Every structure is written in structure tokens, then in C-alpha cells.
Amino acid sequence: MNLVLNFDWLTNFLAILFVVACLYDARYDEYGTLTLSAAAMSLAVMAIEVFLRPAFEMAL
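^ thats the sequence. predicted structure below, dont judge the formating
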């Protein structure tokens, strides 16, 4: 059984959230705060994936 840290579902969810945030901001929000927050969350998840995946793989 292969136990690895899997961020694929979270990355896909954040990509969908980012598209929805862009569409919402284009229609209703002139400052784009929702888009910026979705982008910040995506960057945080990508950083966690890059820095923590090797540690989890070595631990297993």
C-alpha cells in the first residue's frame, strides 16, 4: 500500500475556487479582494506541498 501525502484534490479545489473568485470579482467587487485571498491560499498550499512532501515520503 502506497502512503504518500496527496495534495491533488486540494489543488483542484483551489483552482476551481480561484476561477469562481475571479468571476465573482469581475462582476461585483472592484478591488479583487476575493481573488487575492484565493491566490494567497493557493500559494500557501503549494508551498506546503513543496516543503512537506519530501519529509512525509522520507518518514514513510
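Residues 33-59 form the longest helix (27 residues).
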